[in-house]
Design goal:
Immunoglobulin-like, binds zinc ion, single chain, 411 residues, Aminopeptidase, 6-stranded mixed beta sheet, alpha/beta
Amino acid sequence: MPGRILLVVLLLLGAVGAVAQPVAVARSLAVEATAEGARVRLGLGRAPAGEVTRFHLTSPERLVVDIAGARADRREAPGTGPVRAARVAQFDAQTVRLVVEGAGPLRLAGARFVPGPSGSTVLELDVAATDAAAFAAAVRQGRATLALARPEPGPLAEIAALLDGSAGPPATPAAVPAEAVRRAARRPVVVLDPGHGGRDVGAISVTGGHEKDVTLAVARAAARVLERSGRVEVRLTRSDDRFLTLGERVALARAWGASLFISIHADSAPNPEARGASVYTLSETASDREAARLAAKENRADAIAGRDLSAVDGEAQGVLIDLALRDSMNASADFAQALQQRMEPMGIRFRSQFHRFAGFRVLRNLGVPAVLLECGYLSNAEDSAFLFSREGQRLLGEGIARAAEAWLTGS
Ligand code: ZN
């Protein structure tokens, strides 16, 4: 397994590596619309060690943010609202410069580091339009240091590095247990994973709706119920319409010390009569052809990300299942039962053979009980209407929440 040997070598080098100071590397740049204007998100492998400062320039109006202790290749992102465009590049040996070009006078309304996917850090800048006088005053003010809280350094730098490179999926379930054990003393952590998102829309319903919207709505409904009762901690791998690779979802769950992982999906089938929910758990061999077909479909997100891990995966998978995942697989099957037993009496229809097995990539490498719930069929008119209805989403969310809570707290 050359990939793994390479990885070990890299980790060893990292351990010796007082020589090469780790540096924040800019990996992504995006501008999103917000209610107040726009948010610029600069993805960094880790929080930069140095100062972050800002100043303003005229003709055209620009907000400039310098990040010391960072590296970047040149990237650009189209803007929205008050932002015409954003670009990032290496300014000098130590400094990365992020330039936010305004559609007119603009101001920095907020700035923070937030945890990004897979242990990375995102510098978020909230940008709003302002008037010419306020902008002129900001230009005169010159350079100012931004007081930004650094996110806690997690055990995730290695996972981030893994996902960043071509090394393949997180290959060592043993890498995180310390974190998982520490968490165990606290409330159990349920990680809800709304399937698909962003450019990966998932299945398309009979009326043209997207699976990614159903999965997010159901996950949010479940999170609300869990937060209200407060007996377990709840995390969402995504809480808006964004794209995550399957590896990133797994890495987040591991970073959070998940006690239980529930990936939420909705299926579609050529037969418009097919309907009802099913719960899937991981196995090396699929329980039936349909389960195999479904796994292939749900695993496509990584192909969408332009990263085909199947070569690495096939080899790693068997080893990981043998060594680390036996117990969690049994527990997963147990939770699959609990889910159905809780949800069916609430009026949620399940398929007669509701528990199936297949090689779902998002359930791999977790080492914790994990299921993939297909809430129903978007190719069936009645299921689709239910899945897109507020009431249907509320009911599904409530069922998932109650089942998870009862299973984790033994009540
Ligand atoms: Zn799906």
